[in-house]
Design a protein that fits this description.
Elements (H helix, E strand, L loop, with lengths): L3 H4 L1 H21 L9 E4 L2 E3 L20 E3 L7 E2 L12 E3 L18 E2 L12 E3 L17 E3 L7 E2 L9 E3 L15 E2 L12 E3 L18 E3 L7 E2 L12 E3 L23 E2 L12 E3 L10 H4 L7 E3 L7 E3 L2 E4 L12 E3 L10 E6 L11 E3 L5 E4 L15 E3 L7 E2 L12 E3 L41 H4 L5 E3 L21 E3 L22 E3 L21 E3 L4 H4 L19 E3 L14 E2 L4 E3 L5 H6 L9 E2 L4 E3 L10 H5 L7 E3 L21 E3 L7 E2 L17 E3 L7 E2 L12 E3 L12 H6 L2 E3 L5 E2 L6 H7 L13 E3 L20 H25 L2 H19 L7 E6 L5 H16 L8 E2 L1 H4 L6 H10 L1 E8 L7 H17 L4 E5 L8 H10 L3 E3 L4 H15 L9 H8 L4
Parallel strand pairs: 2-3, 3-5, 4-6, 5-7, 7-8, 8-10, 9-11, 10-12, 12-13, 13-15, 14-16, 15-17, 17-18, 18-21, 20-22, 21-23, 22-24, 23-25, 24-26, 25-27, 27-28, 28-29, 29-30, 30-31, 31-32, 32-34, 33-35, 34-36, 36-37, 37-38, 38-40, 39-41, 40-42, 42-43, 44-45, 46-47, 46-48, 48-49, 49-50
Antiparallel strand pairs: 1-2, 19-20
Helix pairs in contact: 2-10, 14-15
Membrane topology: Single-pass type I membrane protein
GO molecular function, one term: pattern recognition receptor activity
Protein name: Toll-like receptor 9
Length: 1029
């Protein structure tokens, strides 16, 4: 033994090299998510967010490089000193909401138990987030920490933390109406003493009654919103010479405007000492809204020379003069650099004023760019009202929404050319001079002329109006009382590029004169009105129009017998986006629409089911030669006629058909859409994607589809090669269906980049194909570790697919490699030890057994041509169908080990007699499968095959018969009854239950893969082999 290392060093080195190679091969072949049970966004980031964890996982692989760990939204209740010992280089740790008050079902306080040194070992930690964990004190922290978030806990007394290098501290929501504490938070006077580098401090929603003392001079941003600070003294901010942002809103509230529980200001108004801000020379952002302020002292504002943003909304800063609302403060004269000012909701309770008057103090705001005066409730705006704004050359945005304005001449803003946004939404503006102004409408408003009897397409809103007009000069008149539109209404607004008129009561037929003064208009939103589209000349004056929203104008479309014309679309040469959505369009509309410029068309929420059923509108979209996006969702479609598919624009790249009633889609007709890249069929009624289930249900060759969305259907089957012709398919969404397995060809899986399968009842058996998808292919599966769950077996239902370790499955390649490696290690070690210890005896035994086995090695029968011959009655159609479509498919095409079957009609040689073919089939197959029913009688091929198999038993001493019963029968067969006692495993009954069929195939594969003699009853074998006396 002592010479083992010396004599066998070369063999030992070879063994080590072999083991290393095999282990590396196993790791390369299997690419399961590295940090199970969590996901990994990268090598440096582990995502355990919302994984239902009750403790910090103990990962099996190295976490040396991990710098970010996300453990938020779990149920972790205890963190020990060694919990993070495996993360030596951690920099960001998120433990938010592991025991928040909103999750406490029993109504009791809960909190995470943190041991003293839980975070001290993380010497590189820079950011730590502990929101919503019921903490009552700040835990000991590592000195490297720069960013700490401890919002929504129970920190009622803040003691000085043990670190000095903190840059950011968020400690919001520790005492307020959603996290009550029945008191206020107390902050130690020396709490900030060691924080000499802190820059951002947030103490919102903490029920503080005073500004914290000894605030560090390094502060740049301070949030004190929603506390109970009613007084600010002269020295409260004296040390904050670098402060640029101060948020003091909702401290002395105006409760008649509150949207949440409110405590009224005891003193009636927040008291601001005139020297409260005397040292804040660097302040640029000041929020004083909802503090019940009645005035603004000049000396208070005087030091704020650099202020750029000031919010004074929800106060009592308005004054009344001759029934007019007067806004303005003398302190404004000192705000020469102010860019944004909000005076909204400075109304007088239960009072509305005749008009608005802005004081002359506004004229001093030379740098003002935005002015917000919403919710002050006055009925009119006159030229004198906004006269002080005339000198403000930099003013680009004015917002007067929600003021009950009734009388307003828009032209008072026309000369203010610097304005890029005029907000007048949510008022009561009418056009008093618009009604009966002329006879322009009388020419074409009557629908008594030739009525077209065809429907019209409708697109859906692409963006919200505010997003549509973000980069355009905008006039916002949404949610007013406009009924008619006349040209003079917009006189002087030639520079306006975006006009928002949605949610009015406009009910007229546009005839090409209404917007004649808006020659540069590019975006027009007239949704949620009652627009009549009868006139051919509608919108003809808008030559530069690019976006038109006519959605939710169903009033006239729903009138029985009323016609509508969409010929105006062809006359808009620059129109790119059109929205006719949710109009209930079904009949009496232009049969074909034409446009060479239209790119995006939304026609959702109409009745294409009625239109296409009448076969009058099959060419409705044909002549949109430049169309790239078409939305036909929510059209109650149960089918899409092939004629319609042929006449869709070939330029289409995106087609949306979600939220219909489709159970079938003409996939082969996609050949008429050669440029289609995205197809959305979600929220329909698809059950199967298989040419077997639906004839001609296949994708055309060389399809350019890049993204297919089939989520929220009822799919339970997808043919493995269904998407093979989509040679550029990279994104496939199959979420929330009824799929039990994901079985696609290797070619498709190699092309796919993203496949979404969450919300499917997947089978989590050892041979499940889902494991092959992410183990063998580089595919991203969204929410793989926490949203992809098992549907069966029953004990795993609703749990993650990784709850059962797939690496332990017996049919898995990793298990094979492990066993192989173990056996090689064991055998080589045993050989070395036996040779050293037993020497001559071992070699003697080896040669003796070698001689004994020599004959056996050279008398091994030749390899059979087939694994099994299938004998069945081909006269019974359902038996033939089962053999060719179930048995053959499962044994020859599915599974890791695939068998070669011998079938009469497929493999018998022509020209040879039946008995010769039968004999060769039985003899050249390892086993013979007999497929029987209760209607079978042992005759013909079945009878002869049985006799030949019996002859093999006599000649070769080998049982080769397996019986498959498709029905419960043969109880009167004495042979089967005897065989059940001797070798019951070779008689299989086809189960009626779908869930039991998987086990049937598993048993059949196992039986075919082993010698049938091993399944005989041991007592019978012992009886047969016992010596006779």
């Amino acid at each position: 033994v002592r010479n083992f290392t010396t004599f066998h060093a070369p063999l030992k080195d070879l063994l080590v090299l072999l083991v290393f190679f095999l282990s590396k091969s196993s790791l390369v072949i299997c690419s399961f998510p590295a940090f199970l049970p969590c996901g990994n966004l990268s090598r440096e980031t582990i995502d355990c967010c919302d994984h239902g964890l009750s403790e910090i996982p103990n990962f099996q692989i190295s976490t040396w490089e991990v710098s970010t760990l996300l453990l938020n939204l779990n149920y972790i209740s205890h963190i020990s000193n060694s919990s993070f010992s495996m993360f030596p280089h951690l920099r960001y740790l998120n433990l938010d909401y592991n025991c928040p008050y909103m999750k406490n079902a029993k109504g009791m306080d809960c909190h995470i138990l943190l041991e003293t040194g839980a975070f001290l070992g993380l010497i590189y930690l820079q950011a730590l987030s502990l929101r919503g964990n019921g903490l009552t004190s700040i835990p000991p922290l590592p000195p490297s920490l720069k960013n700490l978030t401890i919002d929504y806990n129970h920190l009622l007394f803040l003691k000085p933390p043990s670190i000095s290098g903190l840059h950011v501290l968020y400690a919001d929501g520790n005492c307020y109406y959603r996290n009550p504490c029945n008191s206020g938070i107390t902050i130690s006077e020396n709490f900030f003493q060691s924080m000499t580098e802190i820059r951002i401090l947030s103490l919102k929603y903490n029920n503080l009654t005073a500004v914290p003392k000894n605030l560090p001079s390094s502060l740049q941003i301070l949030y004190l919103q929603a506390n109970q600070i009613h007084t600010i003294g002269p020295g409260d901010f004296s040390a904050l010479i670098q402060l640029s942002t101060l948020d003091m809103r909702e401290n002395c509230r105006r409760c008649d405007h509150a949207s949440n529980p409110c405590l009224p200001c005891q003193k009636g108004s927040m008291h601001l000492h005139r020297k409260s801000f005397s040292d804040l020379h660097a302040l640029t952002w000041l929020h004083l809204s909802d503090n019940s302020l009645t005035s603004l002292d000049e000396q208070l504002i005087f030091p704020l020379k650099n202020l750029e943003f000031l919010d004074l909304s929800v106060n009592f800063l308005s004054k009344e003069k001759n029934s007019a609302l007067v806004l303005g403060e003398k302190a404004f004269k000192h705000l020469v650099r102010l860019k944004t000012l909000s005076m909204s909701f400075n109304y007088k309770q239960k009072t509305s004023f005749k008009k608005l008057i802005l004081s002359q103090d506004f004229s001093f705001l030379e740098a003002l760019e935005e002015l917000h005066i919403a919710g002050c409730f006055f009925h009119s705006v006159e030229p004198e009202s906004i006269k002080p704004l005339a000198a403000l050359s930099k003013l680009v945005r004015i917002d007067l929404r929600l003021n009950l304005i009734r009388n307003l001449k828009l032209q008072i803003f026309a000369n203010k050319t610097s304005l890029t946004y005029i907000g007048l939404s949510e008022n009561e503006i009418t056009c008093s001079s618009c009604q009966h102004d002329d006879d322009e409408e009388s020419q074409e408003t009557s629908p008594s002329q030739n009525l077209p009897s065809h429907p019209n397409p409708d697109p859906d809103s692409f963006l919200l109006p505010s997003q549509q007009c973000k980069h355009y000069s905008t006039l916002n008149l949404r949610k007013n009382n406009l009924i008619f539109i006349r040209p003079h209404l917009f006189q002087g607004f030639e520079h306006i590029e975006c006009l928002l008129l949605s949610h009015n009561s406009i009910s007229q037929a546009f005839n090409g004169t209404q917007f004649v003064n808006l020659r540069n208009l590019k975006i027009l939103d007239v949704s949620y009105n009652r627009i009549n589209l009868y006139a051919d000349q509608a919108f003809r004056e808008l030559e530069h129009l690019e976006v038109l929203d006519l959605s939710y104008n169903s009033y006239h479309f729903m009138m029985s017998g009323m016609g509508h014309r969409l010929n105006f679309i062809e006359k808009l040469p620059h129109l790119r986006r059109l929205n006719l959505g949710n109009n209930g369009i079904s009949s009496r509309i232009t049969k074909e629409i034409r446009s060479t410029s239209l790119q995006e068309f939304i026609f959702q929420g109409n009745h294409l089911d009625i239109m296409w059923a009448r076969k009058l509108y099959s060419r409705f979209f044909k002549n949109l030669s430049n169309l790239t996006m078409l939305d036909l969702s929510q059209n109650y479609l149960t089918e899409i006629p092939q004629e319609v598919m042929k006449n869709l624009p070939s330029s289409l790249r995106k087609l949306y058909l979600h939220s219909n009633r489709l159970a079938y889609f003409p996939w082969k007709m996609l050949s008429f859409l050669p440029n289609l890249e995205l197809l959305d069929l979600s929220r329909n009624r698809f059950v199967s994607l298989s040419p077997k289930a639906v004839i001609n249900s296949y994708l055309p060759c060389h399809s350019h589809l890049d993204t297919v969305v089939l989520s929220m259907n009822r799919l339970d089957e997808i043919e493995s090669n269904f998407f093979n012709n989509a040679t550029v398919l990279s994104h496939l969404n199959l979420s929330f269906n009824l799929l039990q397995k994901i079985d696609f060809t290797n070619d498709l899986l190699q092309r796919l980049q993203v496949i979404d399968i969450q919300g499917n009842p997947l089978i989590c058996s050892c041979d499940s194909t889902i494991f092959q998808v992410f183990a063998n292919f580089n595919i991203s599966i969204p929410d793989l570790t926490n949203r992809v769950k098992c549907g069966s077996p029953v004990q795993l239902k609703g749990q993650s697919i990784f709850v059962r370790d797939a690496l332990l499955c017996t049919n898995n390649l990793n298990m094979f490699l492990f066993v192989s490696t173990f056996l090689i290690n064991f055998l080589l070690t045993a050989i070395i030890v036996l040779k050293q210890l037993l020497s001559w005896d071992v070699w003697y035994i080896f040669h003796m057994w070698s001689a004994k086995c020599y004959g056996l090695l050279f008398t091994t029968p030749q390899k059979k041509a087939y694994d099994a011959f299938v004998a069945f009655d081909k006269q019974q159609e359902f038996v033939s169908d089962w053999v060719y479509n179930e048995l053959r498919v499962q044994l020859e095409e599915n599974g890791i080990h695939r068998f070669r079957l011998c079938l009469e009609e497929r493999d018998w040689l022509p020209g040879m007699s039946s008995i010769e073919n039968l004999y060769n089939s039985v003899v050249n197959s390892k086993v013979t499968l007999f497929v029987l029913t209760k209607e079978n009688c042992m005759s013909g091929v079945l009878r002869e095959a049985f006799f030949i198999a019996q002859q093999r038993l006599l000649d070769e001493k080998k049982d080769v018969m397996i019986f498959i019963l498709l029905e419960k029968a043969w109880r009167t067969s004495r042979y089967l009854q005897l065989r059940r006692h001797l070798c019951s495993e070779t008689i299989l009954l086809w189960p009626a239950s779908l869930y039991k069929q998987h086990y049937f195939w598993y048993r059949l594969r196992c039986i075919m893969g082993k010698d049938l003699q091993s399944y005989y009853d041991r007592k019978f074998i012992a009886l047969c082999t016992a010596p006779t006396s």
